[in-house]
Amino acid sequence: MDIVKKIFYRDRYALSKAISIIENREDGYLDILKDIYKNTGKSHVIGITGPPGVGKSTLIAELAQEFVSQGKYVGIIAIDPTSPFSGGAILGDRIRMNDLELNKNVFIRSMATRGGIGGIATTTRNIIRLMEGFQMDVIIVETVGTGQADVDIINVAETVAVVLSPNLGDDIQTLKAGMLEIGDIFIINKIDIEGADEAIAYLENMISIAKYPYKEWMPVVIGTSALKKMGIKELVDAIYQHKKNLSASKGIPKRNERVLQYEMEGIIYDEFMNRMRYMMEHDPETKELMTEVYNKNIDPYTASQKILEKVIDKNKFNGK
Ligand SMILES: Nc1nc2c(ncn2[C@@H]2O[C@H](COP(=O)(O)OP(=O)(O)OP(=O)(O)O)[C@@H](O)[C@H]2O)c(=O)[nH]1
Ligand SMILES: [Mg+2]
User: Fold this and answer.
1) Mutation test of ligand 1: which of 48, 58, 162, 163 has the most ligand atoms closer than 8 Å to its C-beta?
2) At 155, is the pLDDT very low, low, confident or very high (cuts 50, 70, 90)?
3) Tens digit of pLDDT for each residue in 221-246?
4) Is 252 exposed, middle or buried (0-12, 13-18, 19+ CB in 10 A)?
5) 3-state DSSP of 139-200
6) Which ligand lies nearest to the CA atom of residue 59 in the structure?
7) Ligand 1 atom at minimal distance to the Cα of residue 189
8) 149 located within any domain
9) Rounded to the nearest 10 degrees, what angle do helices 56-69 and 232-248 cross at?
10) d(CA 289, CA 253)
């Protein structure tokens, strides 16, 4: 059986292997991605973002457990993790993560880097595709949201949850940097510590005055304590409700079209950059042209235009 078929039949080993092949851009990686596309599109991709240390990973572990208890398959991708999923420092968390990983319905992958210009790297999108091909019911993507670069989680996920803690003072910059606009669900985690009620009230007020592009859904605020397992069911309900509302109001195709556009822009961008770099480094004609620019015999704008034409024209391009 080929690897794509194995993944479709939920072979965890095949999924791991395919992820490695794709991460390392090994021979045949593109064939896997091309082939798996037909099996994708049924998973609910949920983005969980927020400032460092608010409890995203801990919360995701609890969320995953709740989904699994409902018989669902859950994929988790943690981008740039500084704690637990990579086997972090906190013993309690590590034990919980390991319990989760032992569950055959949960598959966790940590990504070392987010790379790319827009934030969510091509590889992340590829791995989401692989997990979709595994027929995950839910795919949760954790990103550390600290500013503008992270708002493009919305270009990957159907439902975006922004996690904050009752220490809102520290997190307010995050909201200012664009996080307020992208959240479908806002979570105040750590409601077991002081200031939770005030934080929730403050956030609800901010939401009521903010402008949201999707009229079919008004963001909600949920209080949780991942540590004390409070509010998890409410959070899961809110996630389902969001998906339901999006489906009913035709919001799903709208989002999916945007996700696809973003994905394709990334594919084209990567291909373009690869070709351009290859040409700049290996193509004698291009190198000669650059020397001409260096010697001021031609200006960089005219030269770049020539290079651009050559990069695009596959007949002229003899790189790999
Ligand atoms: N009191 C309290 N502490 C929590 C709660 N959830 C998580 N924590 C603690 O907060 C710390 C950070 O938790 P993480 O889950 O690693 O937070 P994170 O947002 O994933 O952190 P980064 O990935 O580094 O951005 C850990 O010490 C957790 O045990 C909670 O509900 N209440
Ligand atoms: Mg984390």
Assistant:
1) 58
2) confident
3) 999 999 999 999 999 999 999 999 88
4) middle
5) EEEEEECCCHHHHHHHHCCCEEEEEECCCHHHHHHHHHHHHHHHCCEEEECCCCCCCHHHHH
6) 1
7) 31
8) yes
9) 70
10) 46
CB atoms near residue 133 (< 10 Å)? 28
Q: Which two tokens stand for residue 87?
A: 């086997």
Is the model's pLDDT at 302 over the cut of 90? yes
Q: Which domain holds residue 272?
A: 260-312
Within-domain flag for 109: yes
How far does residue 173's CA lie from ligand 2's centre (Å)? 19
Cβ(53) to ligand 1 under 6 A?
A: yes
Name the residue with tokens 């690897």: 3
318 assigned to some structural domain: no
DSSP tag of 61: H
Q: Is position 293 within any domain?
A: yes
How far does residue 56's CA lie from ligand 1's centre (Å)?
6
Residue 107 pairs in a beta bridge with 75
Best probe residue, ligand 1, of 76, 82, 83 (max atoms within 8 Å of C-beta): 83
Q: Which residue has the tokens 């994929």?
A: 75
Residues 100 and 228 in one domain: yes
